[in-house]
Each structure stands twice: as structure tokens, then as C-alpha cells.
Design a protein that fits this description.
Number of domains: 3
Helix content: 55-70%
Largest sheet: none
Low-confidence stretches: none
Distance between the termini: 102 Å
Shape: elongated
Structural class: mainly alpha
Strand content: under 5%
């Protein structure tokens, strides 16, 4: 008994008459006939090999595969470029279905940046993405593997270069076309999103629907699982949680749950993505979206990420904090008012390069002033709670910052205090910290010079030896 699905091969020569008629018709109305229809040999390659491949597909895969019917029809008459286009269109539809399974909000968060993100809201907006963006984002989110991405990206390139979607003078070979068809079906159309992608969508949906604050055990399990996620999933999850937190429609329970989960995600995220959040916050500021701006800043605060605000925003914020810290230091009850402000300063700074160059000299001088103190007997003139914060700041300084610290010692408001033995003891601690991080040998020697004679360190800039030592790094004539 023969197989009910056994196919009768239809040879290209069976369509020769129709092909000749079509070619003659084109000639009659003055249209080109070269490089329009594949050669008889190439059509024979398809006709001989396509049936064997189609028989490997299940009944369910064939039942509604209209794109395959169009593919067979197009290849039978030699329109290989159109056949490739039919297959590619099905790939795009399949990738879009994968994004829906993953979650379109999550997908758009990864695919679209800046102000344009607000324009992409639901499934219908997937049409607005270029195929290359769709493909690249699917790779980043592991909806397809890196290897499959390389294969499909090549097919997209060939589809754009030689298929019916664009004018071209190239041709497609029969074996090439069959290989692309096999790749599209086996690597994309049969494939499903990774388990990680599905779990992330479930997490987001559960967060949105939660009516109570999650418990500590749930947070602990999440922290353990997030360390096993791929980098791309972690990045997208952080951006999505940030967007949910900044959404004015998010309720208190959702924000509380995000605040419990976000720190562990933040710690697993690369800096470039953290800076992207800073750029998004800057967009809120520029567009006067004050509600989102406030929520975005709250998010960075709860993950200790204020250092990742954009440079203009950090400059303004640190300048204001610098002024507040200086005023607190010279005001009443400075021991109590300085530490909270210094804590905010450190929230913006993880390394010396986080300090904008324009604010560096003034901020370093203010911190040195607070750390040296007023020379009072009470608590040695320095805020006890502020000392570890000031020391932390000083340890972050690179050689440029250390030079500014040395210069600040000779500012009148600080220099006058250095004649006090109490302030000299604090200066010794400051110089020890700076020596531990300085790289330049000359800076090291300058710090050693000051340490060697603390009682006279306040007038070191009047000594020719010190001036000559520091001349390459400090312009004393300013």
C-alpha cells in the first residue's frame, strides 16, 4: 500500500509551455525577460528536492502553511525571489508571535529607546519595527540563539539584496533557496522561546497582578535565580522594572515589590545599561515629565545608583549638594547636618570619574574642609558620623582629584585652620589616605613632604623646595 502522502514529482519541463508564453508576453509589451525567471536547471533542483524536504514536516506544520503553497507556486514558475519573500514574511510573523509570548512591553523596552518608547504600546505597534531591529532584539532576549541569528541575518541580507522586496539584478540558486527554507523552518518556525524568557514574562505578570508585598523567602529565591539569568535577560528585566516603577499608574504594592527585587538585578547589570537609565531620566527632565522624573530618581536611590545619572544632571545635583554641605559645615549643629548631605554626594559617586570636572575643585575643597574640621575640642572638631564618609570620598580620588586636594590645603578658609594641632592630626589622616591611592611618583613625594612637617604644612607653598617639586602638577601663579 502506497503512502497517502507520496508526491508525484512535477518536472520543470511540464511548465515549459507556460513559461515560454509568459516570456513571449513580456517581450510583446517591451518588458525585460532576462533574470526574471530562474533557469530550467535551477527549477529542476527545486522540483527534485523540495518534495523530500516537505515530507519531513508534520501534518500540523503543513495544514495552514499558505506561505509554503506560495513558495511552491513561485518556485515552480521560476520566481525564486518572490518565493524567498514569502518565507521571510512568515519568519517575521513568527518572531512577532514570539515577542507576544515574551511580552510586548518587555520587548519594546529592549528594542526602542528614548522618547520614541512611549509610541510603542501593544501588538499592533510591532509593525513599526524594522525587520533588522526585530531580529536583533530577539537575539538579545534569547528568543533565538546567536547561531540562528547569524543564519537568519544572512537570509535577511539576501532577501534585501536579491529578493522581490527590492530592485536587483542578482539571482538565487535552487540549492541556496532550499537551504534558506530549511533554516527558516527548522530554526525559527519550529522553535520556541527559551524557558528563561518565559519565566521572566511570568515574573512581570505576577508582579503586576500582586495585591500584597512579597515575603523575604520569595525575595531570596529571586536573588538566587537572577544570578543564573543571561546578561541580556538581566538587562531587559532591569529596564522593564524601571519603566514600571516610573509609570504613574503603578500602585504602592507594585513599587514596593520592585524596590525589594531591583537591588539584586542592579548588582548583576553592566554599567552601560545603568547609564541608559540615567539617560531615560534625563529625558523625563527635558520633557518636563515631573512625575516620572521623581519616580526615576527614587528608583536610582533605592539601588544606590545616582552615580549613573547623565553628566549634566549629576553636575547640577552635585553642585547643589556641594553648596548645601559647605553651608552646613559653617552653620549650627554641623555635626548632625553634614552626614546626610555627604551621603547624598556619595550616592552619585563610585569612582573619581563620576565627579564632573567642572565641580571637582570645589567639591574636593568642601570635603577637605569638613574632614580637617574647625579645630574645636568637642569631638575634635569633625562630625563623627561624617568621618568615614569623607574618608570614603578621598579614597575614590584619582591623581587629578588628589592634586585638587593638595591645592585646597592652601585655600584661606582651610589654610588658617592648619595651624591648629587638632586640624594637623586630621591632616595627617587625610595625607595618609591620599598617599595610599596616588599613582604619580611626584604626587607621592609632595604628600610625603607635607607629612614630614605637619606643623609647617600650612606654609609649604612658600617654600621653594615644595614649589619646585609640585610645579609640574600645580600652577602656583594662579
Amino acid at each position: 500500500m502506497s503512502d497517502a502522502r507520496e508526491l508525484r514529482l512535477i518536472q520543470p519541463r511540464d511548465l515549459t509551455a507556460e513559461t515560454n508564453t509568459f516570456t513571449a508576453y513580456l517581450e510583446q509589451i517591451g518588458l525585460p525577460t532576462d533574470n526574471v525567471i530562474a533557469t530550467t536547471h535551477e527549477r529542476d533542483v527545486i522540483a527534485s528536492n523540495l518534495p523530500a524536504f516537505l515530507q519531513t514536516l508534520s501534518h500540523d506544520e503543513l495544514r495552514d502553511a499558505r506561505y509554503l503553497s506560495k513558495f511552491v507556486g513561485a518556485t515552480a514558475i521560476g520566481l525564486f525571489d518572490a518565493a524567498l519573500n514569502y518565507v521571510w514574511n512568515e519568519v517575521v510573523l513568527n518572531l512577532r508571535r514570539k515577542t507576544i509570548v515574551y511580552g510586548v512591553d518587555l520587548f519594546f523596552d529592549a528594542a526602542v529607546g528614548g522618547a520614541a518608547r512611549s509610541l510603542y504600546k501593544d501588538e499592533s505597534d510591532l509593525d513599526g519595527l524594522k525587520d533588522s531591529v526585530l531580529l536583533d532584539t530577539c537575539r538579545k532576549l534569547e528568543l533565538i540563539s546567536d547561531v540562528v541569528y547569524c543564519k537568519i541575518d544572512h537570509i535577511l541580507t539576501m532577501r534585501n539584496e536579491v529578493a522581490a522586496s527590492h530592485p536587483n539584478v542578482e539571482s538565487i540558486g535552487g540549492f541556496e533557496l532550499l537551504g534558506w527554507l530549511q533554516t527558516c523552518i527548522k530554526d525559527v518556525l519550529r522553535d520556541r522561546p527559551s524557558d528563561s524568557a518565559i519565566r521572566i514574562r511570568a515574573l512581570i505578570n505576577n508582579l503586576r497582578s500582586a495585591t500584597a508585598v512579597i515575603d523575604s523567602d520569595t525575595v531570596a529565591r529571586f536573588e538566587a535565580e537572577v544570578r543564573n539569568l543571561s546578561v541580556s535577560h538581566v538587562h531587559n528585566l532591569l529596564i522593564s522594572l524601571f519603566g514600571m516603577y516610573a509609570d504613574r499608574n503603578s500602585d504602592h504594592v507594585l513599587k514596593k515589590n520592585i524596590s525589594l527585587l531591583a537591588p539584586s538585578i542592579w548588582n548583576c547589570t553592566e554599567d552601560r545599561v545603568k547609564y541608559r537609565l540615567g539617560t531615560m531620566i534625563d529625558g523625563y527632565r527635558t520633557n518636563l515629565e515631573n512625575d516620572k522624573l521623581q519616580c526615576g530618581l527614587e528608583f536610582l536611590t533605592l539601588v544606590n545608583g545616582r552615580a549613573f545619572e547623565s553628566l549634566p544632571a549629576r553636575t547640577v545635583a552635585l553642585n547643589l549638594l556641594n553648596t548645601r554641605l559647605r553651608e552646613a559645615h559653617t552653620g549650627r549643629d554641623n555635626f548632625y547636618h553634614e552626614p546626610p548631605i555627604m551621603g547624598e554626594v556619595l550616592g552619585y559617586i563610585r569612582k573619581s570619574t563620576d565627579i564632573p570636572a567642572v565641580i571637582m575643585p570645589s567639591l574636593v575643597k568642601t570635603v577637605i574642609s569638613c574632614r580637617i574640621g574647625r579645630g574645636l575640642q568637642y569631638r575634635q572638631g569633625v562630625s563623627p558620623a561624617g568621618v568615614p564618609m569623607y574618608d570614603q570620598f578621598l579614597r575614590l580620588l584619582d591623581d587629578t582629584g588628589i592634586v585638587h586636594a593638595i591645592i585646597s590645603l592652601f585655600a584661606p578658609e582651610i589654610n588658617s585652620k592648619l595651624q591648629s594641632q587638632i586640624c594637623q592630626s586630621h591632616l595627617a589622616a587625610v595625607l595618609t589616605i591620599l598617599r595610599s591611592t596616588a599613582i604619580s611618583e611626584r604626587i607621592q613625594q609632595a604628600l610625603e613632604f607635607l607629612q614630614a612637617d605637619l606643623p609647617n604644612a600650612y606654609k609649604a607653598n612658600r617654600k621653594q623646595t615644595f614649589v619646585e617639586l609640585t610645579r609640574p602638577i600645580i600652577n602656583w601663579r594662579q
